Structures are given as C-alpha cells and as structure tokens.
C-alpha cells in the first residue's frame, strides 16, 4: 500500500534523524531545533560528542577557562554559540575559523583581555557579537573587516580608553553599538571616533552613552555632546610633536606604561614624562581650560553686544517720540503766530490814517 509505505518512510527518517542527533551526557537537547544546552553544569571543558549537525550550542555558567584549537572543527552547521559566564581569558587565533554559518556569538562575562585581529575571519554571516564584561583594553585594527552582516556589537564594561574609527568603518550593516561603562579618555585619541559616532547616529544607528572619565573637566559628559572646538588643540599638538607621533609605532600611551630608557639622561631629567606621552598630560588640561575660557569670553562679548543693541534701540525710540511731540507742538503754535502778525498790520494802518 503506498500510504503505508509513505508513513513508514516518514518514521524511518525521524528515527534516522534522532539517531544522528545523539545528546551528550548531562546536557539537554532538542532534536527539533538541533539545540544542545550544557549550561550550569560546572564543566571545565566542552564535551567531545556534540552532534555535528548542531545549530545551537549553549555553554553558559560553567568553569571553562581554555579552548583547544580543534574543539569546534566538526560543528560547521553551528549558527548560535553562547559561552557567556565562564573563565575564558584568551581565545586562540583560529578557534572560530570553521564556523562559517555562525550568526550569533556570545562571549559575555569572561576574562578576555586581548583579541587577535584574525579571530573573526570566515564569519561573514555573523549578526550579533557580545564581548561585554571582559578585560579588553583595546580593539585591534582589522578585527571587524570580515563582518559585513554584523548588526549588534556590545563592548560594554571593559577597560577601553579609546577606539579607532578605522576599526569600525567596515561594519556597514551595524545598527546598534554598546560602549558604556568604560574608562574613556576624551582626548585627541578619541577625536576621530567621535566623528564616526556622529556619522553613525546620523544614518540611524543606536549607540549608548560614551561617558568621559578623563579629563576631569569632562568627567561624566557624553562624548557626542562635547563641542569639537574642545579638540582644536589636537592640531597644535600634532604640529609641535609631529615627528614624535609619526615615529611612535608602539602601543598606545597609557599612564601605566614604563618610560623608555633613553629618556633617563642625567642632564635633562625633566624631559622624561614627555617621551612616553608626548606632553599629553601637560597640554590636555591647559587646552581644555583655554577652550572653556574662550567659550565664556565669547558669551560675555555677545551679551554685551546684545545689551548695547537693546540700549541703542530704546534710545532711538525715545528720541523719535520726543521729536514727534516737538513737531506737534510746533504745528499748534504756527496759527497763533499768524494772528499776531495780522494785528500788527492793522495797528500800522490805523496810525497812518490818523
């Protein structure tokens, strides 16, 4: 009977699918959605018997601290990977190289301090990336070059002090960026990224508050609300220290970075801080105060000009009203002056007749 054969074929296909999707021990699985959930089990390593056709793999709230290189090599069908709330501190360069179908990667709340610039290669379908609550101090340039489909990126609660706009320009599909709760230094190193943020907001992107930590004059203020005039000193700084900035190919200057040994000369010890950070600490607060003073002076001058214009307008109105009143009085007196002249003429005629 054809009907019986079709039913038997259907059940055989289901049995074959179930046999191919074998759930690892202690984990929960869903053969319909091809999901494997090994969350909250206190595991320190990823099970080796994950089905190769798994599409969703959840490994939250465990004790995972390292990832062996080939751990995901057989999971090319994976679309969602969540490794949040673990103890990962370093990610191998090619750890995700076989996950070409991945659309969501969650690495929230780990101890990741550095990222390799080639970490996210071969992931052109990735749409969501969560790197929040880690120890990232910088984002390497080029790490997002192969993510044209990325829509949501979270970098919240790290140790980021500055970002480079060149790193984010390849994210043509980005719709939401989360950068809050970082110790941002709103200086020249963040100026170009401020331009990118304004462009990103202009084209409809959503970004949370990028609150400044330093300098103290801008502490707590959103970087997007800081006037660009506050960074006019950056051009002066680049002109005066152009050779030093161009020759500096090392890591970004930070407060904790050691000063080079060549600066420790016995003749000029006072020049030592400006070699590692080319007068950054000296110029920044002075320039900020100068910019604030310029804004205050401009406001006072504009106020004085406005007051003078109001006084001049009031004086003109008063003068016009007085002149109008004077002319009205003058017109009233002109007929009376004509009558007196007629009386004088009559008196002269009477005296001549007599």
TrEMBL record:
Coiled-coil intervals? none
Check the record and name the Pfam families matching this protein: LRR_8 (PF13855), LRRNT (PF01462)
Describe its membrane topology: Single-pass membrane protein; Single-pass type I membrane protein
Q: Which PROSITE patterns match?
A: LRR
The record's family statement is: Belongs to the SLITRK family.
Residue spans of biased composition, Low complexity class: 249-268
Q: Which UniProt keywords apply?
A: Cell membrane, Disulfide bond, Ion channel, Ion transport, Leucine-rich repeat, Membrane, Repeat, Signal, Transmembrane, Transmembrane helix, Transport
Q: Where is this region: Disordered?
A: 245-278, 335-354
> Where is the secretion signal located?
1-17
Q: Which GO terms describe its cellular component?
A: plasma membrane
Which residue windows are transmembrane per the record? Answer: 291-324
Give the subcellular location.
Answer: Cell membrane; Membrane
All copies of the LRRNT domain together span 22-56
Name the record gives this protein: Leucine rich repeats and transmembrane domains 2
* Domain LRRCT residues, every copy: 182-235
InterPro entries on file: Cys-rich_flank_reg_C, Leu-rich_rpt, Leu-rich_rpt_typical-subtyp, LRR_dom_sf, LRRNT
| One GO process term, biological-process aspect | positive regulation of synapse assembly
Chief localization class?
Answer: membrane
């Amino acid at each position: 009977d054809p009907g019986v054969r079709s039913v038997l074929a259907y059940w055989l296909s289901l049995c074959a699918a179930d046999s191919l999707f074998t759930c690892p021990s202690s984990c929960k699985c869903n053969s319909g959605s091809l999901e494997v959930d090994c969350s909250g089990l206190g595991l320190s390593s990823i099970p080796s018997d994950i089905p190769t056709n798994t599409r969703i793999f959840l490994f939250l709230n465990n004790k995972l601290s390292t990832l062996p290189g080939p751990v995901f090599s057989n999971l090319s069908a994976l679309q969602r990977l969540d490794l949040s709330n673990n103890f990962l501190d370093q990610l191998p360069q090619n750890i995700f190289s076989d996950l070409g179908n991945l659309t969501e990667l969650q690495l929230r709340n780990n101890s990741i301090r550095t990222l390799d610039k080639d970490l996210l290669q071969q992931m052109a379908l990735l749409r969501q990336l969560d790197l929040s609550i880690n120890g990232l101090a910088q984002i390497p340039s080029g790490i997002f070059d192969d993510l044209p489909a990325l829509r949501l990126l979270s970098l919240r609660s790290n140790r980021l002090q500055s970002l480079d706009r060149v790193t984010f320009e390849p994210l043509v599909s980005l719709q939401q960026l989360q950068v809050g709760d970082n110790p941002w230094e709103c200086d020249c190193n963040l100026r170009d990224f401020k331009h990118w943020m304004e462009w990103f907001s202009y084209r409809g992107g959503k970004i949370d508050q990028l609150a400044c930590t330093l300098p103290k004059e801008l502490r707590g203020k959103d970087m997007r609300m800081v006037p660009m005039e506050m960074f006019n000193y950056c051009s002066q700084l680049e002109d005066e220290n152009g050779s030093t900035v161009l020759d500096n190919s090392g890591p970004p200057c930070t407060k904790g970075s050691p000063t080079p040994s060549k600066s420790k000369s016995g003749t000029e010890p006072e020049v030592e801080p400006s070699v590692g950070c080319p007068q950054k600490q000296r110029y920044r607060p002075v320039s900020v105060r100068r910019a604030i003073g310029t804004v205050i002076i401009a406001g006072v001058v504009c106020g004085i000009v406005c007051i003078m214009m109001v006084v001049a307008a009031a004086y003109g109105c008063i003068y016009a009203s007085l002149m109008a009143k004077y002319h009205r009085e003058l017109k009233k007196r002109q007929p009376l002056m004509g009558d007196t002249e007629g009386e004088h003429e009559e008196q002269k005629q009477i005296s001549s007749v007599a």
